[in-house]
Amino acid sequence: MLRFAVAQDRAVVTINRRDFIRLHQQNSQHAGIIVCSEDADFSGQGQRIHDVLADEPQLAGRLIRVNRPGGKR
Q1: Contact (Cβ atoms closer than 8 angstroms) between residue 14 and residue 35
Q2: pLDDT 10s digit of each residue in the chain, 73 long?
Q3: Tell me, what DSSP letter sits at residue 69?
Q4: pTM for this one?
Q5: CB 71, CB 39: distance < 8 Å
Q6: Biggest distance spanned by C-alpha atoms of the chain
Q7: 3 vs 23: CA distance, rounded Å
Q8: Strands laid side by side in the 63-66 sheet
Q9: Which residues partner with 52 through β-bridges?
């Protein structure tokens, strides 16, 4: 999935935290990776992603973590 996203110059949003953090550590040449805690509150999760990204001037090469309230960091 990351290879496809890189080819399309697109960021990735995923709950597959472990693998995508590792991929970012291996190579940060991507349009951005947003790793999220698994959360059944989809609306709340979407709002948290929006809020975090609203404060980010650029995603390229960045790993952004969005955690559910009260979840593990």
Answers
A1: yes
A2: 888 999 999 999 999 999 999 999 999 999 999 999 999 999 999 999 999 999 888 999 999 999 988 755 4
A3: T
A4: 0.88
A5: yes
A6: 35
A7: 10
A8: 12-14, 33-36, 63-66
A9: none
